[in-house]
Amino acid sequence: MGKVERVLRAAYFALLGVPVAFAPTGVRARVVRRVFRSPFELREPGVWRAIAHSVLALAVGLVAWFAAFLMVIAAVRGIFYPLIAAHDYEHSWGGPTLAGAWAVHFAGGALPFPLWVLLIAGLGWIQLQLTRRLLGRVGPWWPVPISVLLFLGGTAFFIAWLHQV
Fold first, then answer.
1. How many CA atoms lie within 13 A of 56 on its CB side?
2. Which DSSP state fits 57?
3. How many Cβ atoms are within 10 Å of 97's Cβ, its own excluded?
4. Each residue of 45-72: pLDDT tens digit?
């Protein structure tokens, strides 16, 4: 499996965090095996570990979906700037010409698309480590507090984003 494929699979796994958080633990293990094409074994996670995994996987999954939402908005606005927000291009970034404003919005919105995918893939990798720790009882301890911090930071960023919209 190549690097690009691994990144795309991790990003896909990050977005699966929301629906998979509500699935039985056997389904969650099967999703890990199928997405990453690697063995994963449940090791008697117990009720509390399964609940903790559900809550934290949902939290990280929501952050991943918010990042994907922002990625799509930025790309669409960058590519279609003249159709969406070109009413005042003389005072916008890259103005006073439409071509300059479009170029700047394209560069800031559409060109960072691969970086957004890497961010979402990073969230997927954290979810994988979280699943290994809580359901497989292997791996490092740090995914649990990192998931909590990601959710708190993502919530703060979401609230700030809502206030600026």
1. 27
2. H
3. 11
4. 889 989 999 999 999 999 999 999 999 9
